[in-house]
Amino acid sequence: MEDNKEPKENKRREFLKTLGIIGAAGASGAMALYFGQQYEKIKSGKKVRLLTVDNKVVEFENGELKEFKGTTEDFIARGREGIPGKSWVMVIDLAKCRNARKCIGACQNAHHLRPEQYHVNTLQMQDSEITSPYFMPKPCQHCDNPPCVSVCPVDATFKRTDGPVLIDNERCIGCRFCIAACPYSARIFNWFDPKDAEKFANDPYDIELNVPQKRGTVSKCLFSADRLRKNELPYCVSNCPNGVYYFGDKNEDAVTNGTTKETVRLSTLLKDNAAYRLMEELGQEPRVYYLPPKNRLFPFPEEENKKDNHV
Amino acid sequence: MKSSFILIVILSLLGTYVKAQTPWVVPDDRKGLLAPLKFSDETRKLGQEVFNKTCVSCHGHPGQPDQAKLVPAPKDPASKEYQQNLDGEFFYKITEGRGLMPSFKKMLKSEDIWNVISYVRTFNKEYVQKVGAADSSSGITGKLLSKLDYLIKDNKIEVKVIQQSNKMPVIGVKLSLYAKRNFGWLPLDEMRISNASGKLTFNYPKDLPGDKVGDVNIKVNMANADGTERTIIDTIIKTEIKCSQYNLLDNRAMWNVRSKAPIWLMLSYCGSVLAAWGVIFYIIWILLQIRNKGAKV
Description:
The complex is a heterodimer.
Chain A lengths: L1 H42 L4 E4 L5 E5 L2 E4 L4 H9 L7 E6 L8 H9 L10 E5 L8 E5 L8 H5 L5 E3 L5 E3 L9 H5 L5 E3 L28 E3 L4 H5 L5 H5 L5 E5 L4 E4 L5 E3 H7 L15 E4 L20
Parallel strand pairs in A: 4-14
Antiparallel strand pairs in A: 1-2, 2-3, 4-11, 5-6, 7-8, 9-10, 11-12, 12-13
Chain B lengths: L1 H20 L6 H4 L9 H14 L1 H4 L20 H4 L3 H10 L13 H11 L23 E8 L4 E8 L10 E8 L2 E4 L4 E2 L5 E5 L11 E9 L5 E10 L24 H34 L1
Antiparallel strand pairs in B: 1-2, 2-6, 3-4, 3-5, 3-7, 7-8
Helix pairs in contact in B: 3-7
């Protein structure tokens, strides 16, 4: 009997041991299963959004962290609302423009435009035969009474409370009524697939930047509404090397030069230089003012540069 | 008569020629200014970035003949004539500007300008840098205390500057007044110099709009000896001029879709359509009555 006792005890110990091992293995297996499942969830497209220390929302997807840029719907909802209390205006000093075309390059780059497409272009002007020619940058005039908005049948293009006239290419049906209505020829049509179409195909559509562009829709200058939201000067304004552009808030009566960063009173600048607006007689109240090309700082090049211009 | 006319023409042409060729004189007290930092590979790298962004479009790439064709012609930074400038002369010319050369006082910080100078000096093999004192500022030492009063009735701003240590007024300090606007600071009055009691008065514009409640963020900058400025007061004053905001979408004929159309327009349109149909149906009804009467007879 004594002999039998020991193996019995041994058996119990053995049993407890195995139980312990099985228990531990089971727990770790379950844990592994659980975490595996969680990982699968994330891997299978379940996204986690995080706020980083510098206040950026990042999205956790496929085990990789990337910046969350927002959805098309968010951008459209935000872009329809103007920035409260602002009334953006631009002043272009024709005396300083020497056709450096940096504004055009920066604009085309930001809005994914082909080289032959312009939101802003510098035109060669000569008012009469015996007067001097000069260069005139011409963006959209962002009229307060815009005929392009009045004719749009689908409410794709719209006037915002802070001034810019924007376009929603998710709504645009490509009828081109607005192109016909605009007396400044400020609008362009995407006849072909936009530049780098495949590269940006999956990006959310930013209505304030009009990117990615879409074939069969109209595009136009947006006063760089995306930059204004970040309280930065528009692309063309900040990239001009010759101090041609002033930009600012009419409510504050101040505009800032994009090159020299000099801030001046808007009313004084316009009065002192006898500023004018293009085709004022149409009553469209454009938001772009021109200072006459008086005392030009650059002589007009006779042959040079001429070939660069698409008029 | 004719000869005097020709003489006048020649003299005036000579005048413009002389004007174009006037050497750029830098005041003696600014000439000897030295960089407060030792030029290093890092300053040269930062300087090159600033140079490529702000200077290349006119001065071209150093050593290459791609300068802009202007009158007077911008100098190639690698040229001997350009490198003859002292560091202080460079600093003065970049901060102040002249003619086509813009003033970079508002655009670049003083460190940025020194970085650019350190970069362009790489094109001068013989250059040896002399380092200046660490603080190249106004010559006014010690911490300053300042007080600002806005006299709303006279449209004046009074500023008083005293030394923190001995409470003595600071005499001869050069101050400028600015108001914050969306993309920069708007200069409000010319530079003023403090008097024997450390006081000075700025004229404040009568018609400068504030924000919705009339608040304006203003700052007072003190001029340093090197032509740059540093802020000594940054505060908000309450003015009576509120900015006039109105909704751009009111009273505009942009009724292209039904959701934007005003009720009076919808009612008058629908009313006139109904009225037109009403008249047509009334005439048809009368014609039917005439026909019925005719059938009875």
